[in-house]
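Support request from a user on the community tier.

User writes: "When I paste my C-alpha cells into the form, the page sometimes reloads and wipes my input. The last time it worked, I copied everything first. Here is what I submitted, just in case something in the input itself triggers the reload:"
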C-alpha cells in the first residue's frame, strides 16, 4: 500500500505542468547540433544521451534543486545522468511541516522516451530514473528530522504501463536500483541505472522538485 501511494505521488509529479524559467540557458555545441532540442512540449529542454546544457541560476530556489547544468552518457543500456546543482548540502531536513505523509518531498528525475518520441505523452516507451524522498509524517506531531543527504535520498527506475482500453498510464517500479553518486565538492548529483531499450536516439529531460519551494529543469532554448 505504501509503495502504491508513493508511485501515485511520483505519477502526479511526472505529469504536472512545468513552468519555463524566464531566462534562456546556454547550451553546449554538442547539444545545439540536434533539432530534437527544439521539442519543449514538456516545458523543459529535451536532450539526447551524451549531450550537455547549462541553465541560469534561480536565486528564488534552494541550491539543491537549482539546476545550473546537466550532462549524460550512455553505455549499452546504462544511462549516467549528472545534475549540476548550485549547492548540495551535507544534510537535508525531511518530513517537514506542510508535506503530507507519503507525498513526494524531494525529487531529482530524468524522464526518458526510449523511442525518441514526446516525453509528455507518457506512453509505454517512457521511463523515469529518479532520486527522491517521500515524507513520513503519519501524525500531526511527527518531528522534522535532519539526515545526511545520501541517507535521506532513495533511487528507483519506473516504467510507463499504458492501458489503451482505459486510456490511462500507470508507473511500474522495475527491479533495479540506480546508483546514486553525490559530490559535495562539485555540487553534482549523478544517477547511474539501466533503462531497457534506451539508445543514442532516445530523448531525456532533467527536472528537480521540492514540495515546499518549487521545481526546476533545463530551460528551453528561445525562439
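"...and here is what came back when it finally went through:"
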Amino acid at each position: 500500500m505504501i509503495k502504491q501511494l508513493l508511485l501515485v505521488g511520483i505519477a502526479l509529479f511526472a505529469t504536472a505542468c512545468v513552468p519555463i524559467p524566464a531566462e534562456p540557458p546556454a547550451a553546449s555545441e554538442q547539444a545545439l547540433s540536434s533539432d530534437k532540442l527544439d521539442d519543449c512540449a514538456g516545458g523543459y529542454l529535451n536532450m539526447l544521451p551524451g549531450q550537455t546544457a547549462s541553465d541560469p541560476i534561480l536565486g528564488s530556489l534552494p541550491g539543491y534543486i537549482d539546476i545550473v547544468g546537466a550532462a549524460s552518457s550512455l553505455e549499452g543500456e546504462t544511462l549516467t545522468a549528472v545534475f549540476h546543482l548550485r549547492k548540495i548540502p551535507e544534510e537535508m531536513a525531511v518530513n517537514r511541516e506542510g508535506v503530507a505523509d507519503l507525498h513526494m518531498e524531494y525529487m531529482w528525475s530524468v524522464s526518458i522516451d526510449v523511442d525518441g518520441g514526446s516525453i509528455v505523452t507518457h506512453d509505454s516507451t517512457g521511463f523515469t530514473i529518479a532520486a527522491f524522498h517521500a515524507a513520513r509524517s503519519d501524525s500531526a506531531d511527527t518531528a522534522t528530522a535532519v539526515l545526511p543527504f545520501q541517507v535521506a535520498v532513495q533511487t528507483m527506475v519506473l516504467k510507463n504501463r499504458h492501458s489503451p482500453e482505459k486510456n490511462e498510464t500507470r508507473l511500474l517500479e522495475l527491479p533495479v536500483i540506480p546508483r546514486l553518486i553525490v559530490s559535495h565538492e562539485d555540487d553534482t548529483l549523478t544517477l547511474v541505472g539501466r533503462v531497457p531499450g534506451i539508445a543514442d536516439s532516445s530523448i531525456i529531460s532533467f527536472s528537480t522538485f521540492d514540495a515546499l519551494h518549487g521545481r526546476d529543469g533545463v530551460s528551453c532554448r528561445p525562439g
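Agent notes: The reload is a front-end session timeout and is unrelated to the input. Residues 4-9, 11-38 have pLDDT under 50 and may be disordered. The first strand starts at residue 52 and ends at 54. Escalated to web team.
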